[in-house]
Amino acid sequence: MRNSAGAQNFLRMFLLLVVVATGLGATATFALTPLPRPVASAAVEAGKSAPFVGAWSVSMPTMEVGTPDTDYAICALPVRIEAANETHIFYLGPREKEADAAMALIPDQDGARWEPIAGGPVFFAIWINTDTFYLYDIVPETNADWGMPFIYRRCP
User: Fold this and answer.
1) In total, how many domains does the chain have?
2) Which one of 30, 83, 100, 154 counts the least CB within 10 Å of its CB?
3) Which domain holds residue 75?
4) Is residue 25 in some structural domain?
């Protein structure tokens, strides 16, 4: 009888360990899963400069449990976006005094491509709400491309 009780306790402990290990593995897997394609906000018209105008904090999710997002700009030293006209913007990094050439905003996939008029890499922005947009360093084409956005939040 004693061996039977010991075997049952061992079996319970083993099953508990399996359940905990499985749960931790699933949590780690979900933490590393890229973000899905966001739903574009209907409150912002794609391709117009006015919603982008202002000061912005910029971060990127790390996708690792317990690791904070990476901040590229904070409201004390923000990215600034200015309107060049209705469909073009000037982008100024946190320490930039003047912008390079303007970027054209081209409506695409419920968002807007940012195409520098002087040439260079094309970016893609999609509005999450009136104070948040995601910026991608490529125009997303596959589900995996939506996974690592730069997150722009309007500063007060």
Assistant:
1) 2
2) 30
3) 50-154
4) yes
Residue 112, burial from CB neighbour count under 10 angstroms (0-12, 13-18, 19+): buried
Asked whether the beta carbons of 35 and 144 are under 8 A apart, the reply is: no
Place of tokens 């125009």: 139
The Cα–Cα gap between 150 and 35 comes to: 12
Confidence (pTM): 0.75
Q: What is d(CA 136, CA 132) in angstroms, rounded to the nearest whole number?
A: 13
Q: Dig out the tokens for 30 from the structure.
A: 């979900």
Q: What are 80-111's pLDDT values in tens digits?
A: 999 999 999 999 999 998 888 899 999 998 99
- Please give the Cα distance from 68 to 3 (Å, whole number): 49
Joined together, the tokens standing for residue 80 give 């600034």
Q: For residue 96, give the DSSP letter.
A: -
Nearest 5°: phi and psi at 5? -65, -40
